[in-house]
Structure formats: structure tokens, C-alpha cells
Fold this sequence. Notes:
By secondary structure, the protein is of the alpha/beta class. It has helices at about 1-30, 35-40, 85-95, and strands spanning about 45-50, 75-80, 100-105, 110-115. The N and C termini lie far apart (about 75 Å).
Amino acid sequence: KWAVALFVAGLLMAIVKIPFISAREHSIIAERNDVYRLAEVQGLQHAVVFIASPVSTTRPMPVGDLLRNDFGNEQQIIYVRDIPGKNHELLRSYPDRKFYRYTREVSATEGKLVHLTLR
């Protein structure tokens, strides 16, 4: 009898919590996709994005986890780690691409994607 009561109580608790957990996880996914969303909204094509900041305030995701490129780097947008002092090497390697930098304030859920002008 107690086992059935505990099972039913657990089931009811799970049913009540699922919408809250789903909403939280949805917001985390949205925060983690911020750099890709900005690239899509701004219509980036044939570009290199230097990622200078991690994403998400709720469950942070480091820069290294955001670099999702194919092996040949032939996709429309190449995501790279922003390494001041070393970025010029990529600028020379991809002279035909446009360059952008993604940054996010520590307390902000959304970052900024800024076009870099080359000198």
C-alpha cells in the first residue's frame, strides 16, 4: 500500500515539475544558441566569427564548445576562438571572407556580433 502511494506521489510530482523543467531547459538552449542565432539574424554568409565570450548565464558554455566546424572549414560560417595577437593568421588564411567578433557581458543573456573592419 505504501509503495503504491509513494509511486503515485512521485508520478504526480513529476507531472507537476515537467513544465517548469522544460521551460528552464528551453531558455538554456536559447542562451547557448545566441551566437548562431545572431549570425542567422544578421544574414552572415562566407564569414569567420571570432568568439570572445562564453554563452549562457544559467548554465555557461565555454568558447571551446562553440566551435562547430566541418573538417575542411568549407561551410558558410567558420566559428573560431578569439585569440588576440593570433587572429591575424586567420585573416590572412581567409582573405575572401568577412570577419565578425561575438562578445557577451558576463551578466547578459544575449551577446553582440560586430563586423570587424580590416586595416
